[in-house]
Amino acid sequence: MNTPAKLGAYALGLAVVFGATFGVGTAVGGVGTPPVANEHTVHGANDGDAGDHSDAGDAGKAPTGSTQVNPAGSASVPGGLQVSQNGYTLTPLTTTVEPGETTNFRFTVTGPDGRPVTAYQVRHDKKLHFILVSRDLAQFRHLHPVEAGGGVWSVPLTLPSAGAYRMFADFAPDGGSGMTLGADLHAAGDYAPKALPSAARTATVDGYTVTLDGDLVPGRASRITLKISKDGEPVTDLQPYLGAYGHLVALRGGDLAYLHVHPDGEPGDGRTRPGPEIVFYAEVPSRGDYRLFLDFQHKGEVRTADFTVRAGEAPASGGHDESPTPSPSGGHGEHAH
Q1: Closest by alpha carbon to 280, among 54, 14, 71, 99?
Q2: Is pTM, for the whole model, over 0.90?
Q3: Which of 133, 216, 259, 264 could cysteine-pair with 311, CB 3.0–4.6 Å?
């Protein structure tokens, strides 16, 4: 994916969910914070199909944020701040990655029986989606690993510089619910983390301008619209990328809680337009800073635009934190993962 080693966000009428962590068997929050021990998650608006990001059969479901719950059912932490969930564990097989060098990075997902999972549901054209970010959120990659056999996944991985990174595996095992597991990855060397970029409503990438409209409001669905133009003209011929006109990933500053948003509509459904506007309904669990990364494809190339957004209280008036607009079928925006 042609991104300038930066971050991005993404695509048309949606809702939302959280996940993720990599490192030997621990889940982590911000750098230096204690691991999260909870392994029970309510994942997506409809748990039996939570990994399904944009299937037409799910259109019309109200957006829901994923929240971890303990066995008693009380809410605790956003989903995915863990290396294991519901008996599934992200297991890296490659333990050393040198900064600046391409490594054939290999990993498995082991199931409740302790064996590598080999049967996955296809979601957005892939059995498994792999996201890599630096822990200071200055670097973002949406990569596409391949199955090497026996439940082993392989992906060429280059860490551009020394420092701490986080990998996320987003998948749904055959017959199970969708989930996101993750872990930390380290490249040895001197490392000076960067501060988050300031909040902004406009991002530019390769001559494209992406404008963000809307506000994130904790605990409720918020309408977020991203409008794409090039050379001052609206882009109205976006191309499908992984089954959608765009993909949006949001990561919370500090602990990197993971929010993957997918569209209510899909290319070819008769109502979803290929730009210039891409609409999402996102639900975030708390106030604070979030990084949004939009992947979109135009003229055969995938690009990533990135934003910093602060989630706060509901705007006094004229805000965009409205309930999802009913679709033509009478439902609301789809859930996401």
Answers
A1: 14
A2: no
A3: 216
Q: What are the two backbone dihedrals, phi and then psi, of residue 71, each rounded to the nearest 5 degrees?
A: -55, -25
Q: What is the pLDDT of residues 94-122, one digit of tens each?
A: 988 999 999 999 999 999 999 999 999 99
Q: What angle do CA 111, 40, 176 make, to 5 degrees?
A: 45
Cα torsion angle, 108, 303, 51, 287, sign: positive
Which tokens sit at 121?
């549901």
C-alpha 70/C-alpha 38 separation (Å) is 7
For 187, residues 6+ apart whose C-beta sits below 8 A from its C-beta are: 97, 98, 99, 159, 161, 162, 163, 165
Q: What is the CA radius of gyration of the chain?
A: 18
Residue closest to 244 by CA, chosen among 203, 206, 208, 273 = 273
One-letter identity of residue 35 = P
| Residue 170 CA, distance from chain mean position | 8
